[in-house]
Amino acid sequence: MVAAAAAGIAGSACSRGVEHTPSPSTSGAPVNPPLQFPDGFKWGVATSAYQIEGAVTADGRGRSIWDTFCARPGTITDGSSGAVACDHYHRWDSDLDLIRSLGIGSYRFSIAWPRVLPEGRGHVNRRGLDFYDRLVDGLLARGISPVATLYHWDLPQALQDQGGWENRDSSEWFADYATVLFTRLGDRVDRWLTINEAKVIAEQGYQYGRMAPGRSDLRASGAVIHHLNLAHGRAVAAFRGIRGTGRIGPCLQLAPCYPADDSPEAEAAALAADTTENALYLDPLLKGRYPNLSSINDRVSAGIEAATKDGDLVVIGAPVDFLGVNYYTPVVIDRGGRPVQPHPISSAGWQQVYPQGLDDVLTRLRRDYASPEVLITENGVPDDPTDSSQPTADRARVEFLGRHLRVLHQAIGEGCRVTGYYAWSLLDNFEWAAGYSQRWGLVRVDFSTLARSPKASASWYSAVARSNSIPGD
Ligand code: BGC
In what order do the strands lie in the sheet with 331-333? Predict the structure, then answer.
């Protein structure tokens, strides 16, 4: 049992010749022994297609909404795009060697829908599909287990032209696309993730217009939330029909919500925020129903209600094999209903560094959602400017990862069923509206030469993966 295996077992930190170097505690006393994770725990790194692949016109790839969005002046901080990014499309082989050289046992990547179906549906682009076939085989040949995200935000533009996720048919398009992949790769992919962060798509893409497709329409965002949930459900149904060997689950960005003080107003505001941040996705997927929508924006709830048809929630709530959780930040709300940032803020601006939030999210899943198996599918932080004298000496990231993994170890010890952790990200990459102005990688990418240089965090994380443990305090 995961919990029993994790609780308080301090094993050897040394495996395959890699050791955690004990650092003296501030008192000078010896450090505590390493914290061992359960046997079989998966250590991974994560990326997404548009953020690293580049090669946006290679081998018959169709246009995506991000190609369109980046071409619109003023959308991306540095005026850049993912047209070249890390050129992973051409460098995938050496990138997989890099993952292997770090001793990391699992890789989460996403598949670019416009590479596989340039028009979004219909004609399958063999060369695009072959790329992912080679990638999966390349991972398996190196002993790395593949975790494939079906959708990480790069909708084919041809589908956007037909209304994109606002169109109810999007859920059918998605299931058909997923079926192409299940059929071709289903015998080799270990885990499938359906949709990356429906919340971020709906909020940033349809409410604030900060991400593709750059819309600001609250009612439309409600329809999009429902259609993304439905698309997830239809893909799960398609997967069950094909009976691949792997497992499937959603990928949600969860943010624990806290009141800024103990006033009843702040408590109520934090509860309302929780509906928007978490329950709108968790409840339909894991309980087969939407939460009470009375606390969310009227237009958003009207959009959800109008889009929901008889039978949808049965599709959406069909059992999944596990839950992918991306954890970055808590949300703290004051008595006036405004978000505040009492915790240290990373250079991303929106991210408060609060490791305990990870335990709170996991405990909530254990208590309120029947304790699903969880993979932490993303967790990370951008380079800290104070580390910049030496670009690969990312001490702040090492500290961030260490603190979060300590909390994760504690949560597993308390009985949370977490079986893997994926650091975001393998490489510095195209950080959406922030362009190349934020570096989230364990491995530095020089964007003029595209050379890769592992940072201190990469070797630290490599030692974690190899020893299946983190250093003690
Ligand atoms: C997304 C990634 C993104 C990361 C850092 C996550 O919400 O899935 O694509 O790079 O956050 O902002």
Answer: 257-259, 331-333, 339-340
Give residue 119's pLDDT. 98
CA of 32 to the centre of ligand 1 (A): 33
Report how far residue 52's alpha carbon sits from residue 432's, in angstroms, rounded to the nearest whole number.
11
Distance 5 CA to ligand 1 centre (A): 31
Q: pLDDT of 338-363, one tens digit each? A: 999 999 999 999 999 999 999 999 99
Catalytic residue among 197, 203, 277, 431: 197
Using a 10 angstrom Cβ sphere, with 0-12 exposed, 13-18 middle and 19 or more buried, the burial of residue 318 is: middle
Domain 12-470, CATH among 3.20.20.150, 3.40.50.880, 3.90.180.10, 3.20.20.80? 3.20.20.80
Task: Give the separation between CA 392 and CA 442, rounded to whole angstroms.
Answer: 9
For 403, phi then psi, to 5°, come to -70, -40
Q: What is the pLDDT of residue 91?
A: 98
Give the predicted TM-score (pTM) of the model. 0.94
197 is catalytic: yes
CA dihedral 425, 209, 259, 373 (to 10 degrees): -40
Q: Could you confirm whether 119 is annotated as catalytic?
A: no
Question: Minimal CA–CA distance to 320: which of 231, 193, 183, 412?
Answer: 193
DSSP at 161: T
Q: CA–CA separation, 324 vs 378, rounded Å?
A: 8
Query: b/e per residue, 254-278, with b = 16+ CB within 10 A?
Result: bbbbbbbeeeeebeebbebbbbbbb
How far apart (Å, rounded) are the C-alpha atoms in residues 45 and 53?
16
Contact criterion met (CB below 8 Å) for 89 and 55: yes
